[in-house]
Amino acid sequence: MSMTIKLSIPNISCHHCTNSIVRETKDLAGVEDVQADVESKTATFVLSSESDLALVRETLAEIGYPAAN
User: Fold this and answer.
1) Nearest Cα to 60, choosing from 16, 9, 14, 13?
2) With a threshold of 0.85, does the pTM exceed it?
3) Which helix or strand (DSSP H or E) is residue 16 part of?
4) How far is CA 66 from CA 1, 2, 10, 41, in A?
5) In this structure, how many other beta carbons lie within 10 angstroms of the beta carbon of residue 42?
6) What letter does residue 15 receive in the DSSP assignment?
7) What's the confidence (pLDDT) of residue 1?
8) By CB neighbour count within 10 A (0-12 exposed, 13-18 middle, 19+ buried), where does 56 fall?
9) Radius of gyration of the chain (CA)
10) What pLDDT digit, counting tens, does each position of 11-30 carry?
């Protein structure tokens, strides 16, 4: 069953940031959908399972957008 997770990403400051987050995470295993928002500094992921969240968090950290929560 899919699950939706919203992560706070304080390093988001512009649309380039949101585009990078989407581009780098959309094809990860288990990611069904991703949307990032510059206004709220969040990214919302629809994941296949909770176990996919670790890879998303790791990837975000690697590209310079670590999740705060």
Assistant:
1) 9
2) yes
3) helix 15-25
4) 26, 23, 8, 11
5) 19
6) H
7) 83
8) buried
9) 11
10) 999 999 999 999 999 999 99
- What is the DSSP pairing of strand 42-47 with strand 3-8? antiparallel
| 48 Cβ contact list (under 8 Å, min separation 6) | 2, 30, 31, 32
Both tokens assigned to 65: 């957008």
- Give how far the C-alpha of residue 39 lies from the chain's centroid of Cα atoms, to the nearest Å: 15
Half-sphere exposure (Cβ direction) of 45: Cα atoms closer than 13 Å? 29
Which helix (DSSP H) or strand (DSSP E) does residue 42 occupy?
strand 42-47
Q: Which residue has the tokens 């706070």?
A: 8
